[in-house]
Prior knowledge:
The protein is an alpha/beta fold. Helix content is 37%, strand content 25%. It has eleven helices and 14 strands. Strands 2, 3, 4, 5, 6, 7, 13 and 14 form an eight-stranded mixed β-sheet that branches. Strands 1-12-9-8 form a four-stranded mixed β-sheet. Strand 3, helix 6 and strand 4 form a beta-alpha-beta unit. The longest helix has 17 residues. It binds N,N,N-trimethyl-histidine. The site of N,N,N-trimethyl-histidine has 12 residues, from helix 10 and strand 12.
Amino acid sequence: MNNTKPPEFKTQFAEDVFKGLTSYPKKISSKFLYDEKGDELFQQIMDLPEYYLTGKEYQILKRHREELGDEFASLEGFDLIELGAGDGKKTKVLLSHFEEKNYDYKYLPVDISKNVLEQLKGSLQQEFPSVEVEPQQGTYAEVLSRLADYRERKKVILFLGSNIGNLTPEEAVNFLKKISSAMHEKDLFFMGVDQKKDPKVILDAYNDGAGVTEAFNKNLLTRMNRELDAEFDPEDFMHWPLYDPESGVAKSFLVSKKEQTVAINALDIKVHFQKWETIHTEVSQKYDDTSIAWLAKEAGLEISGCWADKDSCFKNHLFKRIK
Ligand code: AVJ
């Protein structure tokens, strides 16, 4: 026995960094990539020629907006709930179509960041003054449990951009179970998922020539420097993405180029890295028809529609809850 108290952490980030960098192998959850700087870098990633995901999904939504609108709309109207709305660029394709059709609906963007929600609401009020927007601040889980009790109108839940890929398949099943248990009989769930494809194309998407993804990954180091008074030199680490075509997992690492010990002053620790030791920072899981069917079955969902680009690079599925 000793009398050291368990450390108290000021933030979730502090706790995660402490746990992740004192375990082996080292890891930090990808959700911490998205601070203000990370949000900005991710915006840049979405415009990169190598990062095909955003453009492909945008095209799918644009091309099939009519059909999708018909699926979503019903006489009593509906509530469109979007998990992780971001800047809403893709969703606006649907909103503008709904406006044209005079659909009776409300838009409920969900995000953990109040800032993101306020910006989105502002831009929506300008572009679609007649749309009723009700931002929902909180984690997905909080908002889903809040909305599960709500049964006045049909719900259409959107989860775009292959954000599901940041979860391992097992985590994804648990997440989808939460979604399906928040759904009532007529409710719909619409999800966009990046597909297995030429491994080179996937790898390039996480290893762009301009180095934006590298900067995005290394922002974790500078974030620790900023928020936890750490002493990382980003130059001493390599950005290393990989893709396994069998499991469909893309992973990103930061690899220490030398043996080093780095102080994280706010946590009162010094972290030792052997030469070539890794920090695992991100999972971007890719799916195919077999694994999507498995996900749906495990989560109690039934696929009721599927739209893809012509090369099946990216797919958007519509799900109902199995009764
Ligand atoms: C926002 C999780 C879909 O995994 O493709 C992009 C994040 N990371 N480039 C993805 C990301 C590096 C992105 N998601």
